[in-house]
Write a structure and sequence with these properties.
heterodimer; A: alpha/beta; 7-stranded mixed beta sheet; 7 strands; 19% strand; globular; B: 74 residues; mainly alpha; 69% helix; 0% strand; elongated
Chain lengths: 355, 74
């Protein structure tokens, strides 16, 4: 889904980000529209000139990158991270003692979550992604699915539709995260649950630091190459603001060892996780890359010569309000005091006897 | 621009050779890395070309490794 910029003036303003230094074809994208490109972005919709409608990421480019990644002949070898996180999300779905007739996967990629779930837990699965090639090359799964091409910020579903919404490692490319979470809350049924996974602040900190140091030493300054991630406290606030109840946020770290920095960068590109921020520098000098690889190995390398890369994942669970859900008790309604905590066994057995 | 991806293919194949050539220059790379790491110690300040010498050594080793693989046959 594309939104044209609201006015020619706005179009001019947004293309101040280097239009002529498009990311070189090294990204694997046919550079058909080098030069003046159409600005497709979530620019504030008419009426709600919300100051929070940020525009950090080039969604058009992200779609192209994901399309490219899904079309690669060896795409399976880049799936390891998303498979792992997908299976951990599926674990969390299984942990909930319920089954979900209708579920939605936002930013599904090739369907990493759905393939770990079974027909008893999820009746029907809607898979949405911005990249059509990912949907076309979806992995095998036993649950009946419907593929929908949709942007995470503009879900084309009615209110109160889904029992379950999942999202694995795709919300970190969304420009307006509060809005995306609100949309998810909107399409959930009351007493529905949202389980999501996003990358945390420590992700790829080795790569970020090595590039930063090498660029400073080689070029005298540095520009960000790894995207900004949401902090864990902000996640809680965002979920609360979007209307979710009973929030849970937990974190996990996956460390993957690579032969070197270049292999790591190649894998990131193969996963469709290349940088697409507007303010990215389009060119990374070979000298800088060489310097960064040397710094990476020296500062973070393992004994066997490999280098680790850390992926920090935040898992969040939020529920949509329903009367049947447990609520915090009213102030002053306590029947037991904390002072009796040492005798809690007696208190509990008394309670059981009286039932 | 390039319809058949010829330029991209060339650039990628050159980049793919980087890890092997870097592996051949392990000592110089380690020296450069140590120099940069030393500048992070308290009191040090990393600025442009602080480790230029070490980098030049790394770069010439790298170029030499490149020439060797090119001429030494595949």
């Amino acid at each position: 889904m594309r939104l044209q910029a609201a006015s020619p003036l706005e179009m001019l303003r947004l293309t101040r980000f280097p239009p002529q230094w498009r990311r070189p074809p090294a990204a694997g994208v046919p550079a058909k529209n080098v030069g003046f490109r159409k600005v497709a972005s979530g620019v504030s919709s008419l009426g709600s000139a919300s100051p929070r409608s940020l525009n950090i990421f080039d969604r058009d480019l992200k779609r192209k990158q994901k399309n490219w990644a899904a079309r690669q002949p060896e795409r399976i070898k880049f799936d390891y991270l998303k498979e792992e996180v997908g299976s951990r999300i599926a674990d969390r779905v299984y942990d909930i003692a319920r089954d979900f007739p209708l579920a939605l996967d936002v930013g599904c990629g090739r369907g990493y979550i759905a393939q770990h779930l079974n027909k008893e837990t999820v009746g029907k699965f809607f898979q949405t992604d911005i990249a059509e090639n990912a949907l076309k090359n979806a992995l095998e799964m036993e649950i009946p699915t419907v593929s929908v091409l949709a942007d995470e910020e503009f879900l084309p579903f009615r209110e109160n539709t889904f029992d379950l919404v999942v999202s694995s490692l795709s919300l970190h490319w969304v420009n307006d995260l509060p809005r995306a979470l609100e949309q998810i809350h909107y399409v959930l049924k009351p007493d529905g649950v949202f389980i999501g996974a996003v990358f945390g602040g420590d992700t790829l900190y080795e790569l970020r630091c090595s590039l930063q140091l090498a660029e400073t030493e080689r070029e005298g300054g540095f520009s960000p190459h790894v995207s900004p991630f949401t902090a864990v406290n902000d996640l809680g606030h965002l979920l609360g603001r979007a209307g979710f109840n009973t929030l849970t946020v937990d974190t996990d770290e996956i460390q993957v060892n690579y032969p070197g920095m270049f292999e790591l960068m190649e894998d990131l590109q193969g996963m469709g996780e290349s940088n697409c921020a507007w303010h990215r520098k389009a060119l990374l000098h070979r000298d800088t890359m060489l310097a960064a690889a040397a710094v990476y190995r020296e500062m973070y390398g393992n004994e066997d010569g490999s280098v680790p890369a850390t992926y920090q994942i935040y898992y969040m669970i939020g529920w949509k309000y329903h009367d049947s859900q447990a609520r915090p008790a009213k102030r002053g309604s306590a029947t037991v005091s904390f002072g009796e905590l040492g005798k809690i066994n007696d208190v509990m057995s008394q309670g059981k006897k009286s039932q | 621009m390039s319809g058949n991806g010829a330029v991209w293919g060339r650039v990628r194949s050159r980049l793919r050779a980087f890890p092997d050539r870097l592996a051949a220059c392990g000592a110089e790379a380690a020296a450069y890395g140590r120099c940069v790491q030393a500048s992070m110690a308290p009191g040090g300040r990393l600025r442009k070309d602080l480790c230029a010498q070490e980098f030049e050594a790394l770069r010439s080793c790298f170029v030499a490794a490149a020439k060797k693989t090119l001429t030494g046959g595949r």
